[in-house]
Structures are given as structure tokens and as C-alpha cells.
Amino acid sequence: MSHTAIAFIEESLNASPNLHSFTTAGGQFQWLAQGVLRIEPLQPSHLPAAIITVAVHGNETVPIRLVDQWLTEMVQQQYEIQRPLLVILANPASVIIGERFVEHNMNRLFSPKSAADNAPECRRAVELMAHVQRFIETHPDGMHFDMHSTIKGSDQDRFAIIPDACQGRNLNNLLGWFKHFAVDAWVQNVSPAATFSSFTANLGYQAATLELGQVRALDEPIDRFLPLLKELERLAKGPSAPCGHQPVAYKVVREILRPAGNFEVCLQNFVNFRSLPMGTVIAKGDVEEWLVEQEGDALLFLNATVPVGHRVALIIRPQH
Known about the structure:
By secondary structure, this protein is an alpha/beta fold. It has two domains: about 10-245, Zn peptidases (Aminopeptidase), CATH 3.40.630; about 250-320, CATH 2.40.50.630. The longest helix has 19 residues, at about 120-140. Strand 1 (about 20-25) and strand 2 form a beta hairpin. Helix 2 packs across helix 7 (about 225-235). The chain is built from seven helices and 15 strands. The protein has helices at about 10, 60-75, 90-95, 120-140, 170-180, 195-200, 225-235, and strands at about 20-25, 30-35, 35-40, 50-55, 85-90, 140-150, 160, 185-190, 205-215, 250-255, 265, 280-285, 290, 300, 310-320. The termini are far apart. Keywords: Hydrolase, Metal-binding, Zinc. GO terms for molecular function: hydrolase activity, acting on ester bonds; metal ion binding; succinylglutamate desuccinylase activity. It is an enzyme of class 3 (hydrolase).
């Protein structure tokens, strides 16, 4: 492959990838595995590393195409890369079929216990955890942005979920990049999870799940997200000037898990982050009813069709 071209999506979807390395005037590029690209500066770096992951869910295409275009411009322009980068297209099989996943929701598999199954997505999660762990051992100071798109609409177009393992840490670096990425809101989760960002957070990284727009087909226009390309370029190039954009902070106050037996979601026309009146009935089960307990509370990720024991929704509250 030419040193002035890279085909991130094409290479990542190839089940028999050409695991090669090349060097440009800006950095060293190495394909470690299918969909796993490591990029190192030519000179030693003292900046925090960055892991950028996309396609944990295969139909969340906005981040996939943004990262593909970012890498294309990085190689074509040969600008100087000043921080170590690990870029991953996580679930190629689900991208190929245009579905959220093939057999298992991969964003529930990033822990040794969760990935013990021998199903293909479980094996892929184990492979990715190994690559990430090796990268973090080499670069213990860093950030992880796991980029997704939501299934439902949202009053906050770009938002982030910070895993519980990051509670109490200095997150200034992460929050600074939220401003550059024009993130509208961020939510502090308070429960352990087996998400990709939780895995890296447990290894010491400042990590977040970053939601960009809604699920789209791979050929849908992404024009309104193209300004993010300049911010990804700034991320690769190193320190950046402060940004005045200020996201709204939220905290998870309750997680609704689907109970056994009868269960009904009572909300109609749900929108992420939309404030709900106190007393609004969210859902009903055989023995429990879930209500909005405080004016201004909102919901995230409402999904009435999840299996028993899985998350139906997060109840969130703005932090003032």
C-alpha cells in the first residue's frame, strides 16, 4: 500500500488483512490485527496517548466514517503526529451485515468473565482487550474515546458517558477534549459495567463512551459532523488551545433493569435527555413501578425489548 493512502474501513473489513507497517513524514503506522491500527510519533512523546474505537455496534456508522476520513487525511497530509494512538474498528462482522451485532452485544463483553463464551463476538472482545492492554502497558497515561451513535433521538446531539471507575479522578484532560468535540452533555455513570470504556477506565485511562448522532446507513451524509475532523487532527498533533464550549453535566440516579414476568414501558415518543415531569410513570412490572422522582430528571437509552436482567434505561439528573 502507498505511504500516502490508507483504507481504514476496507482494511478493517477484510477477514484476511494485510498486517503491514509503514512510515510517513508524520508517524509510524502498524496494522496489529484486523481493524487494529497503532500509530506512533517519530519522536518520543510526553503527551497522554489516545485510544479511538468505533463500530462496537456495526450499524453506528457516523463514527466509522469520521475516523476513516481522519486517517485518510492524516496519511495524505503527513502531518506530524505527537501522541501515541490506537485506532480500532471493533466489530467488522456486524458492520458487514449492517446490524448492531451478530450474536452478542459487544459492549457488554469487555471483561474476562463476560467474554468467557466462545462465540465470535466474545472471542473478538478478548482479542481487543489484549491489544488494548499491551498498548496501555506501553503508554499508561492516556484517554479512550469509544465512539457510538444512538438508536433513539436526543435533545443533546453529542453526549458522553463516563464509566464509574473514573469517579473521583482528575478528568481535566478528558473534559477538555469534550469541549473541543462540542459535546453537549456528559453523564457520570455510577454502576460497574463491561463496556469498552469501562475496561480502559479500570486500566487507569480517562475514558468515555461518546455518542455522535443517530444510527445511519454507511452511505448516509455526515456533513454536520465533519468539523470534528479538525478536532481529531488537533488530538493527533498534540496540545490544543482552551475551548469555551461548556457541556452540561449529569449523573445517573437509577438504572432500570428488566424484571422477570410482565413488564411495560409507559412512555411514548421517548427522546434522550428530555426533561420529564415529576411523577411520570416510566415503566411497570408485576411488583414494581418506576417513576420520575424529581422535576427535571430525564432518561437515556430507553429500550423496552431487552432481555430479562438487562438495562431498560438510565434515569439521569443534571448537576448544578
